[in-house]
């Protein structure tokens, strides 16, 4: 029996599942810190939210990498030929 | 479901397969080019409504460049601004029914990343000469040379995987939801996609700007920096 497709599917699911944990926690912390900063200094809200969005997109990228790996495993798996 | 990683050729011109992304890319290029050409024909000293809007766009870009890197925007405005506008229009082109954004294809993003890679070299050589560009690899000290060389490739790579992943995942999720739930359900996701598209275009342009200005700064000799 050929285990490679099975392993690929399981690994793709695991990649997305565990890859999403870190960025989720990190984004939560980032948003919380930004909220705190805006509450302290409402006049700086523009700069803070701009930096926040850029930072969030950066953090999100790690999750996106996992997604790309998962899609590679599912659709363009080099091992399956 | 179709793989998001490979493109379907619509037709062939000679040996070159033409995909939908290529057509969209050329369409966006034509729209941007003709738009820029038509809008800048009659520039006056006291701006009308159209020119005021244009100037608003340009000054916003200038402010962003100055705020993020502290560099004078004039030499970079053309490249960074075009990069931003192209990616923005490309990301938002999914609003037109039947079109997939060309940035959801790996090839388009790779081409943009190669542009950034080359422009870092170009601006680095222009800013500090060939010696200055080479010196920028030895910053902050000589031990970092192999790491800096590796970084100059990997940062560009991560840039294009980031853009590709974000845009492609948006398209992919909308495709899945539309196939599961019908016509109107993906609309909130599409609205989220607009935001993602804007933020990604902004990040791509800002990162390109940061890479360029870092190279230029590292390349300038210390004696010139103080003046």
Automatic annotation (TrEMBL), chain A:
GO MF entries: lipid binding; proton-transporting ATP synthase activity, rotational mechanism
Gene Ontology cellular component annotations, sorted alphabetically: plasma membrane; proton-transporting ATP synthase complex; proton-transporting two-sector ATPase complex, proton-transporting domain
Membrane-spanning parts: 52-76
Superkingdom, taxonomy of origin: Bacteria
Topology with respect to the bilayer: Multi-pass membrane protein
UniProt xrefs under CDD domains: ATP-synt_Fo_c
Site residues (Reversibly protonated during proton transport), renumbered to this chain: 60
PROSITE patterns: ATPASE_C (PS00605)
Major localization listed first in the record, in broad terms: membrane
Domain (V-ATPase proteolipid subunit C-like): residue spans on this chain: 11-73
Cellular location(s): Cell membrane
Keyword Ion transport tagged: yes
Keywords recorded for this protein, A-Z: ATP synthesis, Cell membrane, CF(0), Hydrogen ion transport, Ion transport, Lipid-binding, Membrane, Transmembrane, Transmembrane helix, Transport
Protein family membership: Belongs to the ATPase C chain family.
Function, as annotated: Key component of the F(0) channel; it plays a direct role in translocation across the membrane. A homomeric c-ring of between 10-14 subunits forms the central stalk rotor element with the F(1) delta and epsilon subunits. F(1)F(0) ATP synthase produces ATP from ADP in the presence of a proton or sodium gradient. F-type ATPases consist of two structural domains, F(1) containing the extramembraneous catalytic core and F(0) containing the membrane proton channel, linked together by a central stalk and a peripheral stalk. During catalysis, ATP synthesis in the catalytic domain of F(1) is coupled via a rotary mechanism of the central stalk subunits to proton translocation.
Matching NCBIfam families: ATP_synt_c, PRK13468.1
HAMAP family: ATP_synth_c_bact
Protein name: ATP synthase subunit c
Protein species of origin: Pseudooceanicola spongiae
TrEMBL record, chain B:
Family: Belongs to the ATPase A chain family.
SUPFAM superfamilies linked to this entry: F1F0 ATP synthase subunit A (SSF81336)
Localization per Swiss-Prot or TrEMBL: Cell membrane; Membrane
Coiled-coil intervals, chain numbering: none
Entry keyword Manganese: no
Lineage per the UniProt record: Bacteria, Pseudomonadati, Pseudomonadota, Alphaproteobacteria, Rhodobacterales
Natural source organism: Pseudooceanicola spongiae
GO BP annotations, alphabetical order: proton motive force-driven plasma membrane ATP synthesis
One GO MF term attached to the UniProt entry: proton-transporting ATP synthase activity, rotational mechanism
UniProt name for this protein: ATP synthase subunit a
GO cellular component, one term: plasma membrane
Matching NCBIfam families: ATP_synt_6_or_A, PRK13421.1
Annotated TM spans: 20-40, 74-92, 112-134, 163-185, 197-216
Membrane topology term: Multi-pass membrane protein
């Amino acid at each position: 029996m050929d285990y490679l497709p099975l392993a690929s599917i399981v690994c793709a699911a695991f990649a997305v599942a565990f890859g999403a944990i870190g960025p989720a926690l990190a984004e939560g912390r980032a948003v919380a810190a930004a909220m705190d900063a805006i509450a302290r200094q409402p006049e700086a809200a523009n700069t803070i939210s701009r930096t926040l969005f850029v930072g969030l997109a950066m953090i999100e990228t790690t999750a996106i990498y996992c997604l790309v790996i998962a899609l590679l495993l599912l659709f363009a798996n080099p091992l399956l030929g | 479901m179709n793989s998001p990683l490979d493109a379907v050729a619509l037709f062939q011109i000679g040996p070159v397969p033409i995909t939908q992304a290529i057509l969209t890319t050329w369409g966006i290029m034509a729209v941007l080019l003709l738009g820029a050409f038509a809008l800048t024909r009659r520039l006056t000293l006291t701006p009308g409504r159209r020119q005021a809007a244009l100037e608003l766009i340009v000054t916003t870009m200038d402010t962003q460049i100055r705020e993020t890197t502290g560099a004078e925007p004039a030499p970079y405005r053309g490249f960074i601004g075009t990069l931003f506008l192209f990616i923005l229009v490309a990301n938002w082109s999914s609003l037109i029914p039947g079109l997939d954004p060309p940035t959801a294809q790996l090839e388009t993003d790779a081409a943009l990343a190669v542009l950034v890679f080359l422009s870092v070299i170009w601006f680095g050589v222009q800013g500090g000469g060939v010696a200055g560009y080479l010196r920028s690899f030895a910053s902050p000290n000589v031990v970092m040379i192999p790491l800096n060389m590796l970084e100059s490739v990997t940062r560009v790579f991560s840039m294009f995987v980031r853009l590709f992943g974000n845009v492609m995942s948006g398209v992919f999720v909308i495709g899945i939801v539309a196939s599961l739930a019908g016509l109107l359900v993906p609309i909130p996701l599409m609205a989220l996609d607009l935001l993602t598209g804007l933020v990604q275009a902004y990040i791509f342009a800002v990162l390109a700007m940061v890479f360029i200005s870092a190279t230029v700064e590292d390349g300038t000799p210390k004696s010139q920096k103080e003046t």
